[in-house]
Write a structure and sequence with these properties.
The chain has a seven-stranded mixed sheet with strand order 2-8-7-6-5-3-4, with helices on both faces. A four-stranded antiparallel sheet has the order 9-10-13-12. The model has no long low-confidence stretch (mean pLDDT about 95). The protein is of the alpha/beta class.
Length: about 325
């Protein structure tokens, strides 16, 4: 089966690392990982952010319930977006900001005003967004961070896919943590490094109080030995990682061009490692397409019927695989529908 749902890097980690992991397996499964305070230093060495500005987690999914659930934040969320930010909010503490079709771009001035009017504690942004694969322009993010700071509101920004974008981490708000202590950057490492099963993520912020509250809510050993081993090797794999991101970007761009060649398909130019498209009027709904592709071609795709999105089944989010796999998917869409 070819999986066009899982958002992962098919070109990383390299085989040499996997061989090292295999050799280390007997040792790794018999010992405890290092405590959180030591694990975060490994992370700091990799992401080049001071350890006191970091919280390491068992995937970003571990932090979302702490920030939004346990701390009881009132949040604003642009939709459609990654569902857990909506589903984790406590009753009466979620305000949805609708991204307008057909481009689903975030109007940061309107969003800042919306956050102020709804008196939220924090505004959420995912950039590049999931499922639209669109990035909020760097200058717009700086404006939003500044506007929310003036309104004494937090900006929770998830940048889990930013390395796949044209500007990479150069356009990350991690570069401005000291300027904007109201900003908390959330980052899953599984997407960019092809290691979703290791469950590694982090939060980065100069907001000492928020960092303290997140650390207090986490167990001492929340990241396993396999993830620790991976983090210890990452500084030596930086060049291979950058090459893999470029390769993913190249394959994604070709997938985008292929989908654009389907008559009537409306495709947003992607910034992440997946493509968001609206089905042509003569195509059946996404659930029908997904069922047929799975049955006839052993291809797994996802429609957006489960998102806060009008006519969500008319939209597909297609993860980019290898160039050859992507070509097969485009051909299947053309042949069957």
């Amino acid at each position: 089966m070819k999986d066009f749902v899982l958002l992962v890097n098919p070109y990383f980690p390299p085989q040499a690392f996997l061989d090292e992991l295999k050799d280390a397996l007997p040792r790794l499964i018999t010992c405890y990982p290092s405590p959180n305070v030591e694990m975060v230093q490994l992370l700091a060495d990799t992401v080049k952010i001071p350890a006191h500005n970091l919280v390491i987690c068992n995937g970003v999914a571990e932090l979302i319930p702490i920030l939004i659930g346990r701390l009881g934040m009132r949040i604003a969320v642009p939709v459609p977006t990654f569902n857990p930010y909506e589903t984790t909010a406590l009753p009466g503490r979620l305000s949805r900001f609708i991204l307008p079709p057909p481009d689903f771009e975030l109007d940061v001035q309107g969003y800042a005003a919306f956050a102020h009017a709804n008196r939220v504690d924090a505004a959420v942004v995912i950039s590049p967004n999931n499922p639209t694969s669109r990035m909020v322009p760097y200058a717009d993010l700086l404006f939003l961070a500044s506007a929310l700071r003036a309104q004494q509101q937090l900006l929770l920004i998830d940048e889990s896919f930013i390395e796949f974008s044209e500007f990479g981490r150069g356009a990350s708000l991690e570069n401005h943590l000291l300027d904007f202590p109201n900003v908390i950057v959330l980052k899953s490492l599984g997407k960019i490094y092809g290691t979703c099963g290791l469950r590694i993520g982090y939060a980065a912020s100069a907001n000492a109080q928020m960092m303290k509250e997140m650390r207090a809510a986490l167990p001492t050993w929340n990241v396993n030995t396999f993830a620790e081993f991976f983090l210890s090797k990452l500084p030596h794999l930086a060049h291979a990682a950058k090459q893999s991101w470029m390769r993913v970007g190249s394959d994604r761009d070709k997938l985008y061009a292929g989908l654009c060649s389907i008559d009537g398909m409306r495709v947003l130019k992607p910034d992440a490692n997946f493509v968001f498209c609206e089905l042509p009027p003569h195509f059946p709904d996404g659930d029908v397409i997904a069922s047929k592709l799975l049955k006839n071609r052993r291809m797994l795709i996802r429609h957006n019927g489960g998102k806060t999105l009008q006519n969500g089944k008319r939209f597909l989010r297609i993860a980019s695989r290898t160039e050859d796999d992507n070509k097969l998917l485009v051909e299947a869409l053309k042949d069957h529908f």
